[in-house]
Predict the structure.
Amino acid sequence: MRSGAGRALVALLAMATFGAACGHAPPPAAIGAGLSVHHKTPSTAAVPTPDASEPPSAPPSLPAESRRRVVRAPRETLPPPIADARIVIPKIGVDLPVYEGIDPWTLRFGPGHWEGTAAPGQLGNIVVAGHRTTFTHPFRDIDLIDAGDDVIFVTDAGTFTYEATDAFVVAQTDTWIADATDTATFTLFACHPKGSDRQRYVVKGRLVRADTNAAPAPPANPDPSSMPPPSTSRHCVLCGG
């Protein structure tokens, strides 16, 4: 299990770079920052005209090594992510797989479950992120979800119906939205407003009904010493749009 400091660092990196892969251009102020642009004045001097009787000279030949064709290495292909659940939001017509992970590659396929947060039906906070305007844009209309609307998760363990209770806008740095809870809750979020990554639109809610299937065998508890250390790589950060 990650330490509190480790989780906080990952959360801060995730929220701070949430829109990094949404396809948004950098703000105008960031383009060419620190560069001085000079405009040249066209010269009025006469330009010599070549003698029409003289044949044009052939362009100089390039060295053989300069004429070699550039062969680019094929882009690395990654395996498709794994979906462990479905999310159904009748109010906005969502019925999609939920993939495990919140990295930019995973969110290309659909909504992603923030690893380490609660699973559907469990005590704690299920945190799910998704794009609004890019790729499959599952949370395009997240702002239309009202208090009382159903958010349903379907897994091998059963069907878990949650009720939306609150919706609000936060800054990129408000990582507290992913904090664990003592009761069964959910958090959905995406970039805000549409087409921008300046803020985050958040919907929260609570579990109101659990229709469980036959209880599966309990999983073996992993050896804490075998757990990998928390990653701070910028390639494993949250992204949405």
DSSP finds two helices and eight strands in the chain. The longest helix spans residues 4-16. The helical segments are 4-16, 104-107.
